[in-house]
Specification:
By secondary structure, the protein is of the alpha+beta class. Helix content is 27%, strand content 14%. The strands form 2 sheets. Strands 1-2 form a two-stranded antiparallel sheet. Strand 3 and strand 4 form a beta hairpin. The radius of gyration is 17 Å and the shape is globular. The N and C termini lie far apart (42 Å).
Length: 145
Amino acid sequence: LVDLTISAKLPTVAIKCFGLERCVTFAHVWLHQRTGAPLINVHCEPLPGGRYRVVFHPRIEFPAGASLQEMAQACWDQFEPVVRKNPAPWLWMYKHWRYRPLAANLAAYPFYANISEDFERRLDEGARNLPPMTSKVKLPMVTPA
């Protein structure tokens, strides 16, 4: 779940991924909060002969009072170095950066990334440590030229 991009219209949080902002699910950290179950990242590495190695990462510890956004970010931060080291198994066919922040450098984001009021709300929630889906940020009206 750590790398699953979700629409900003749905219950999501914004995290930094490879230096860019994106919306991800917080289902795994919500479940951790509700049940107390440990959060352990797991990934598979391909081996010769069509086999795979299952790799378990150390349990992720969170400070008391950590927000869903902070916990989701911590999960990604543990996983990102694995992808950086060997990106080939993570051939992501879906669009991870569907949105870009209003103030972002256009060249930093893929051509398909769009501005979204819902995404700006997720960014606002992270910046102000608000619960998910509570921001009321509105984008300014833009009149066509």
